[in-house]
Amino acid sequence: MTFIVGLTGGIGSGKSTVAELFAQRGAVLVDTDAIAHQLSSPQGEAIGAISAAFGSAVLRADGGLDRAAMRRLVFADPTAKATLEAILHPLIRQRSDACCAAAEAAPYVLLIVPLLVESGSYRRRADRVLVVDCDESVQITRVMARSGLTADAVAAIIATQASRDERRAVADDLVYNDGEPEALQPQVEGLHRRYLVLAGAKLNAGR
Questions:
Q1: Which of 82, 97, 98, 198 is the residue whose CA sits 20 to 30 A from 4?
Q2: For domain 1-27+106-206, which CATH number applies: 1.20.1250.20, 3.40.50.300, 3.90.1150.10, 3.30.300.90?
Q3: DSSP annotation string for 70-113
Q4: Residue 123: its pLDDT value, please?
Q5: Which ranges of the chain have pLDDT less than 50?
């Protein structure tokens, strides 16, 4: 049985950076955001349903999802958000389940779910919940630097996500990412060793 660590954190918290450090130590990454991108690419499994529901206004010239246009739409219309989630979430769940099942030979799986706290189903799938934690001001600075969004636009995205306190409340483990990247290495190494022990215990219990 695969040992699954659910990795989450707010936008700009550094989830991808932390995940890569675990991957370097042998963990298999299953990234639900990456799966969503695949599903909504020009030939993606979800693009037909998205086009039927929202029309060509949310598609790029190549037929893939225009994420900026969709983001504006779902922020303005909760019904649109619910419709998009109804299309994508079952497909993401199906594909992520398959990826986790295929990783039986790995020491453990890091299941990366940005909205894990908001989604009870993903929390129930994880043996441990790992939260990448940082101050909101750090999140805003990072996202502005990489995306060109304004501080107000980033703050609006943060406001739609679980709060820092809500994420910390469900965390089994925390990685603090307010400072320099070098500070992540010892935190990840310690957690990696812990997960190897826990994964071994789960495997032995299932025999």
A1: 82
A2: 3.40.50.300
A3: HHHHHHH-HHHHHHHHHHHHHHHHHHHHHHHHTTTTSS-EEEE-
A4: 84
A5: none
